[in-house]
Amino acid sequence: MNTLNATHDPKLRSWVASANEAGSDFPIQNLPFGRFSHSPDSTPRIGVAIGDRILDLRKAGLIDTDDMNALMAASPGKRAALRALISQGLAEGSARQSEWEAALVSQSAATMHVPCRIGDYTDFYTSVHHATTVGKQFRPDNPLLPNYKWVPIGYHGRASSIGVSGGSFKRPRGQTKAVDADIPSFGPSKRLDFELELGWFIGEGNPQGEPIDMEGAESHLFGVALFNDWSARDIQGWEYQPLGPFLSKNFASTLSPWMVTMEALAPFRAPFERVSDDPQPLPYLDSPANRAQGALSITLEVLLQTAKMRDAGEAPVRLSGTNTTRAAYWTPAQLVAHHTVNGCNLQPGDLLGSGTLSGPNADEAGSLMELTGSGKQPVVLANGEQRAFLEDGDTLILRGWCESPGTVRIGLGECSGTVVAS
Ligand code: MN
Questions:
Q1: Are strands 351-353 and 121-124 parallel, antiparallel or unpaired?
Q2: At a CB cut-off of 8 Å and minimum separation 6, what does 49 contact?
Q3: Could you list the residue range(s) of the whole structural domain that residue 37 is in?
Q4: CA of 124 to the centre of ligand 1 (A)
Q5: Residue 1 has pLDDT above 80, yes or no
Q6: Minimal CA–CA distance to 339: which of 152, 201, 160, 146?
Q7: What would the mean pLDDT of 199-203 be, rounded to a whole number?
Q8: Is 129 annotated as catalytic?
Q9: Residue 195 Cα to ligand 1 middle (Å)
Q10: Residues 252, 107: one domain?
Q11: Same domain, 99 and 148
C-alpha cells in the first residue's frame, strides 16, 4: 500500500491559485487523471486536474502518449515517479511555472471523456446493508443469502454503455411483470433508479492463470471514480432469476471524469474490521496490511435536481449520503484478489464497481429502492415534488471526497446524469 511522501505534504501549495482555495476538489495533494479534449470530436488527451484547470501532460513534456490505458499499465514505481514530477512542477516556486502555464486548460472549456478504455466491467455487491435491504424486498423471509459473508458477490456488466458525467440517457424499455399479473407487459420502465457506487480502475494487469494475491492486490489498482449504475427495478425484478441482472442494468452507467489515484488516497486509509459474530475472511482474502489499512474513508453524497427545480433555478437537493467505511463489507484489495483467484486475467482499464454503497441508517441508502421502501414511501423534495423512482428530466448527482485531521481535503468531483423520455 502506498506510503505518505512529499506529494501529500499538507503545507504544499500550487502556483495555480484555484487549487489552494478551501474546499477545492483538486488541490495539489490530489492530482487525478482524466481524458479531455478541446472539442467533443477531437482526440482525447491525458490531463491532470489542478484547481479549476487541467494540466495537459503531453504538452507539459511529461508523457509522449494519448493512451491512458498504457499509462495506467505502468508499474507503481513509475506511476509514483510521474506523480512526484507533476507535484514538483505545479508547486509554488517551481521553475517550470512559466513553461507549464501554456499547458493549462480551463476545465469549464474542456470536454471530458470516459477516463480510459474500459475493456471489461464487473459490478460487486459490497454493502451488506444494501444487500440486506434489497434482499428483504425480493425475499422477505430470506434477505441475506448464506454466501454473502464469505464471497465478494459480483457479476459481469457491460462496458459499452458506460458514459461520462454530464450526459443523458433514454429511459429503458423492457419486459416487466406485476406481482398480481398473469403475464408480463412491455413498455418504458416505471421504476428507474440510481445506484451510488465507486468504480475502481485496474492499472497493471495479470496473466491468465496467475492470481493476484492480497499482498500484491493494491499495486494492480490505479484509482477510483464515482460511478452511477442506473437500474430499472421493474425489469430487474422479472429477469434476475436465475442468472442475475441483465437488461435492467446494461442500458447506461455513468462515471465521473477524474480517476483519483491510489497514491492520492494514501492519507485516507482505514482498518478493515469484522464484527466478531461474522466469519473472518478465508486466507486468500486476508492479509495483515488489509486488516491494518485495507479500507478507505470516502464520504459520498447523492443529490437530485428535477426538471421543475432546474426551470425555477433551484439548486439540487441532497437525498442521502454515507461513508465507505460504513458501507463496504469488502476492501478494494479483496475485490482484486477474489476476481483473479480462479485465474481470471484483469487488464489495464478494467472497471470494478463497488456495488451500491448504503450505510446502516435509512438516510444512508444508495438507491431510491431503499430510500422509498421500494416506492411505497416516496421522498418529498423541498419544492413539494415527490419521487418514488426517477422521472424524465431528473438529474442525479453523486459527489465524493476524503477528509481527515491534518490532511488537505481531496475530492472525486461530480458524477451527474439526466434521464430523458424513452
Ligand atoms: Mn450496481
A1: parallel
A2: 25, 26, 30, 31, 32, 34, 107, 258, 413
A3: 6-113
A4: 7
A5: no
A6: 152
A7: 98
A8: no
A9: 6
A10: no
A11: no
